[in-house]
Structure formats: C-alpha cells, structure tokens
Amino acid sequence: MTDREQKWSGVFPAITTQMNEDQSLDLDGFGRHIEALIDSGINGLVVCGSLGENQALKPAEKVEVVRRAVEVCAGKIPVLTGVAESGTSQAIEYTKACESAGISGIMLMPSMCYKGDPKETLAYFKTVAATTPLPVMIYNNPISYANDITPDMLKELAEIPNFTSIKESSGDPRRITDVRNAVGDRFQLFTGVDDLALEASILGIDGWVAGTGIAFPKENQYFWDLTRQGRWAEALEIYRWFTPLLHLDVHTKFVQYIKLCVQECGLGREWVRAPRMVLSGGERERVLGIIHEGIRNRPAIP
After folding, report:
1. Which of 54, 69, 183, 202 sits most deeply, having the most CB atoms within 10 A of its CB?
2. How far is CA 13 from each of CA 21, 42, 272, 283, rounded to the nearest angstrom?
C-alpha cells in the first residue's frame, strides 16, 4: 500500500523542534523526544509545524529536522512536515526537498504572509499538490493564519486524489459536522485544537494533531483511546484534569508554553528561536503553576 492509499488516523502529535540555548538545533534531544512519543503509542508525527517553529527555521534546518525524524521513526509511523512558506514556489521547493528526505506526507497551510481570497487559496493548494505524489493534509486555521478553508472549498479540493485529510483548527466544533455534511468521509478529519479534543471526538473525527500532549504522551494517548472505545465518562474525567494544560495550546505564546511544559516533564528544554523569547516574570510563574498543578494531579494510567 502506498502512502497515498493509507488512511491516516489516531494521534499525530505536532512535536517541538528542540534547540540549544544558543538557538542551534538540538537534534539529539529532538530524537529522544520522538522515541518517547513512539513508546506512548502514537500513530504518526508532525514536524516543523507551527509548534515546531517552522517560520523561524532556515530551509536547510527544516530539512535536517525532517531527516532526523524519518531516521528515528524508521518506518514505524508516518512522518509529516508542515509546509508553511510565504510563496507557492517556495512551498513546492521545500516539499521536493522533503520528498528526497523520505517524508511520508505534508501538512499544507495557506501562504503565511497573504490573506488570499478563496480563488487564490484554492489555486495555491492545487498547485502545490500537483507537484508532488505525496499525500497532503489540509491545514485550516483561520484564527491564526487569516485564510479560512470552508466546507464549500473542501468540496472542490475533494476532487484531487492526494488531498487525503484535514487538520481542522477553526476553533468552532460546529465545523466538524459542517465538513462531514459537505464532503462525507472523503477526508480523514483531524482536530488541531487541543481544548476541543473531546467535543470534536463526540462529533466524529479520525485523528488529533496534538500539542500539549507531547509533554504528557501516555496520558494523551490513554485519553484518545478512551474516546475511540466510547468510554465517555472516563474520557471526561481525564479531560477535566487535562483541560488547563490543553488551554496552553491556544495562546499566542503556545510555543513557549508547551516547550516549558515539555521541559518540566523531563522530555526536552524550553529554548526557542528568536524573535520568540523564553518566558519570564509573572507570566512564567503563572504558566509554571498550571504545569506543576497538572503534574501533581497526574492521573494513574493503567
């Protein structure tokens, strides 16, 4: 079965890009974090997404990150990369480089510096998809990136075979049902909003591009498995513990918040790439309070 014929589903965490204090890549630390995620039972991995600081990395660095992820995963799970370039030609060039690095597929965002109209957004997606045999996850995040890929637009994209899945991050759980009504089961539907994971699961999704869960991989996977089994009361109990932590995924500083969470859980370091800066002062103390409360009350996982 080819990558394009596979149906992605389950937990595909969006991993952070580990760095040293001098902002250079820490590929060894990155690899160790991947291994911990694989051990938890994830079904796939997303590198160089927004949480992976895609836009702050040089093109060659992103390819280095992709190569290390492919090497560590060693075919056990599919590896996707975020494609978040400013222009169509850059997106095509980066996708081709990732093909050579052994990537399983791409998670394609609209152009990062231009709020296009629907015609322009559709043309961008179609043009990039036409240049690669790789399966493509459509990433819709109008809150952060201004371009909304609506259910009507998805009807048009559904005609193109290598669009296989959607990461839906509009922040509106009603969109799950609207997408299903528009295109049925044509796409594998993933939620990308951590603190809507239970709501989205009830409405019917195939997977979750998880953020905060990279710091709590066993609990994240256990919660997901409960939703697959329809054990809603147990899932709700875990979700109530998890929700203050999941809220960290939907803040402007979600990269700093989640990297700090990863550090406090012993799975990496908090260092980020400028212009981002590590947290300080009262904000740092507030976020640490949320993280440490979550660690103290961590549920027992069978």
Report:
1. 69
2. 24, 7, 19, 26
